[in-house]
Design brief:
The structure is a single chain. The protein has 12 helices and 8 strands. The chain is an alpha+beta fold. The radius of gyration is 21 Å and the shape is globular. Strand 3 (38-41) and strand 4 form a beta hairpin. It has a 5-stranded antiparallel β-sheet with strand order 1-7-2-5-8. The chain has a 3-stranded antiparallel β-sheet with strand order 4-3-6, with no helix packed on it.
Length: 283
């Protein structure tokens, strides 16, 4: 199971506290059909989708904070809406792992999911004291079950989801995501996890399906690809932000992993964004 301390869901319309900790990062939307069916439409959805009571649709955001599914519209008389948050650096990983949208249905997710979704529907139509807090907690549990179910039924990076259950490894991953430019090595990571170097390396590799050093390189190159989309940053600026003092070393590593040099990647991303903008503005 995921570590619920990293997951937060705020149900809109509930009497919950709307103030959020600065460490919480907005990551997506939570939509569950209540007592009545709902209809889902969107430019990225081939045909309208019908949500029956208890069905949950998760829509994720991209790295720029925009919904991946274009023009998402969900209508229904008893739709339970919420906003998804993650703490630390986990929202960055979920931007990449989660698809634009996916649906979890009670008949597929099992009895526990069905009982909790039924409880949410009942609470959402009640006037119970603390209704908002109860809905948020139920939604967090429901989302946790949904994301685990999605990971098992798909080819998603199961290592990321499994790492949520290991507080020591997740602590290290959070630190890497928050400060990718730090001079990370196995010794500093193992110390942060309060583990021996050999035990840490074995556990990290088991969960993430790659050794710690390889993951750091992967994360830095992934982050560099995103940073290159900002025209205000030079390639040297990007290299420095992801932990490479040598621009030449960054160039070589980026080209080896991404298959093109940073300048070429920047041009490709700019052309893609321009084409998408032209398509969206076309009548």
């Amino acid at each position: 199971m995921l570590d619920l301390s990293l997951v937060h869901v705020d149900i809109q319309g509930a009497d919950a506290d709307e103030q959020h900790a600065p460490s919480r990062q907005y990551c997506g939307l939570f939509h569950m059909a209540g007592m009545h069916p709902c209809q889902v439409h969107g430019a990225s959805i081939d045909a309208p989708i019908r949500l029956e009571p208890g069905d949950l649709l998760i829509a994720s955001f991209d790295a720029h904070g925009d919904l991946k599914v274009i023009d998402l519209q969900i209508s229904g008389p008893s739709l339970i809406r919420g906003r998804l948050y993650f703490t630390g650096g986990w929202h960055r990983q979920f931007h990449e792992v989660l698809p634009p949208w996916f649906v979890i249905r009670p008949g597929d997710a099992g009895d526990v999911y069905r009982r909790i979704s039924n409880a949410m529907i009942e609470v959402s139509h009640s006037s119970i004291t603390g209704r908002g807090v109860i809905l948020n907690k139920l939604a967090e549990i429901l989302f946790t079950i949904a994301i685990c179910h999605y990971a098992k039924r798909s080819d998603a990076n199961l290592g990321l989801f499994t790492a949520f259950s290991d507080r020591r490894i997740s602590k290290v991953l959070n630190a890497i995501h928050e400060d990718p430019g730090r001079g990370w090595n196995v010794q500093t990571m193992a110390a942060l996890a309060c583990m021996s170097r050999s035990s840490f390396t074995q556990r990290f590799t088991q969960l993430m399906k790659m050794p710690p050093g390889q993951y750091i390189t992967y994360w830095r190159m992934h982050l560099a690809e995103r940073l290159l989309q900002d025209p205000r940053l030079s390639v040297a600026d990007v290299a420095e932000q992801v932990g490479y003092a040598s621009k030449a070393a960054f160039y070589r590593l980026f080209k080896r992993i991404q298959g093109m040099c940073p300048g070429e990647m920047r041009a490709v991303k700019a052309a893609t964004a321009s084409n998408q903008g032209s398509c969206q503005s076309a009548p």
